[in-house]
Amino acid sequence: MAASSRLLRLLSLLQSRRHWPGGELAERLEVTPRTVRRDVDRLRQLGYPVRSDGGPGGGYELAAGSALPPLLLDEDEFLAVAVGLRQAAAGPVGGSGEATLRALAKLEQVIPARLRSRLRGLHDALQPVAPVGPQVPHDRLMALATACRDLHRLSFDYRDRSGRQQRREVEPHAVVCTEARWYLLAWDLGRRDWRTFRVDRIVSGPEPGPRFLPRRIPGGKAADYVARSVAVEMYRLKARVLLHASRTELADLVPAFAGRLQEWGGGRCLLETGANRPEYLAAHLAVLGVDFEVLEPPELATAVRDMAARLRRAARRSQASTGSL
Fold first, then answer.
1. Among candidate residues 225, 249, 278, the one where a domain is terminated
2. Which pLDDT tens digit goes with each residue over 71-119?
3. Which residue of 143, 174, 186, 213 lies most exposed, with the fewest beta carbons within 10 A?
4. Beta strands in the chain (DSSP E)
């Protein structure tokens, strides 16, 4: 690999991860550790602030500098950034719209001709809808995302749905946007369990603390976990329903945002979900096309009985009307 190409490859690697052991960089670039050190020195001469730490486990990381050096993007990354900026301009992040549009204009000014038609097609196809949820300050989102990346504990004052304010200390793992709202998925040190926090309800902070070791997110995916949590917690009515079908049969019928689904034995699954009105949830359960029984709450069981009676009356009237034609 030519020296210039290797330098660009090194820069791309440093931008892709927070910290790189020297030996791993040498292996990726197929060179000696000494060559890596020389290439790092060349990047520093070009204005890239690369930090290094010595010792057997030493490595390199791209630090924040006094100026912004060029950012290396391949074609797919360039398109992803441009599309993301277009979507973000209409997103629920307060104070970032103007800066987002300025950044998008700069990208579109320098985009290669071969990518321009692809980007135009993506922009025409993706039409963002104006957000209906509360906006959150972009600096708060950045602070949360940085803590997730660098594995730093956070402390902040949080206002729950009843308006009560409490101090929380957490190990942040991911920031997720769903249903036009931003959520922080974190391990709550006080409650010793996973919690989802609405970012717009964080009223002070967040203040970074010591580093922590990451935990395994239940189910493996932060977005799915948050979607399942939101499907229950955001609604007034909480429900537990036993569905007489296997998880495989329900895979396409009950998406992650519809609630928490778990095997219950005997070819059945337990669905934990929510709604603002019991009759709405009763209707959704009916159209699943599988047998079910309501475990709780009583209001949902009543709504199911009322709906069944209403459907029986409609069926009798429809049968009578059809017979008279």
1. 225
2. 667 778 878 887 777 766 656 665 555 566 667 666 766 677 777 777 7
3. 213
4. 20-21, 50-53, 59-62, 93-94, 136-137, 152-159, 165-178, 181-188, 193-198, 202-211, 237-243, 260-265, 268-275, 292-296
| CA angle (225 as vertex; 193, 196 as ends), nearest 5 | 50
Q: Mean pLDDT score of the chain, rounded to an integer?
A: 83
Sheet holding 59-62, edge to edge: 20-21, 59-62, 50-53
Same domain assignment for residues 247 and 288: yes
For residue 134, which of 194, 94, 107, 187 has the smallest C-alpha distance? 94
Expressed as residue numbers, the domain containing 118 is 75-125
Residues 114 and 151 in one domain: no
Name beta bridge partners: 196: 185
**What is the β-pairing status of strands 59-62 and 165-178?**
unpaired
**Whole-prediction pTM:** 0.55
Q: Does 325 fall in a domain?
A: no
162, part of any domain: yes
